[in-house]
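quick one, 298 residues, struct below
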Amino acid sequence: MRVQAWTFDEGYGRDTAFLDGLEQRGQVFVGEVPTNFHGWMKKPRVLRRGRSRRRGRHKHYPRLAARDRRCSEVQNLARYSPVFRKQKWQRYRIKDTQHGPEVWEVKWAKFWRKGVDGLPGRRHCLIVARNVLTNEVKYFVANRVPGERGISLRRLLRVAFGRWSVESCFRQAKEELGLYHYEVRGWRCLHRHFYVTQLTHLFCARMRQKFDEATTHDDPLEHLTTEQVRRAMNTWLETAQGRLTKAARFQRELAKQQYYQRRNAQAQRSHVKTRKAKLLSLGINADRIKTCIPQSPT
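---
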């Protein structure tokens, strides 16, 4: 399987063997790494062979030169390395959420990560991102460098922070469709449950998209959600046998969904307004800074 780029959390990013495996397969990745992830800002010198010694322990090659053996944690590199200390933070509008735009400050530099064998691999990119409101700091390592092969920092950030949409799908599947409601003892049963849940999720997503296109709502906040589609289907299934009460149940469910739709839209507008006000208090206009959000064609 080959994709445009892989992204993952620090649980996978801390696994050096996993990263080496992606490298060996020629896969592109931009993954989050823990604060104690090790590497070098300057490529260390690797000795391929050396003089034979008659006495003492035999040295194994390839090996790092004595002065280049020490590597550092990414949190220390971001704090003390001259490359990062001389940089200014670049502000990017990473994504738009239900609570408003998210703005992060970013620094990046060329980086050589430490492999399983303790040797440096190919040139990588270390990205340090800091949330302007919460001061949360994230570290990302990519095996592509901005400016090479048409790669831009904006593209790497889009991949690095693109994991939230996948996590949102898992959250919807768990909360609305029962992805984690299983009591089985075999992997075949587990896979069958996952397949049924994924098909149900796909059906709800298709229905939501179909009815959103058919509506005349000008406000995107009033579009359907996966929860509303799931509730509508449950109502239809529960009233499939009792025809006398079907119309009344449908009307009650429709009124309830319209109420929650208006309330959620109003709450989202309030959250977005509050978030933008907080950013403006810091002198940040989210509409006038660099953005990683793909622009829809006009």
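The mean pLDDT is 85.
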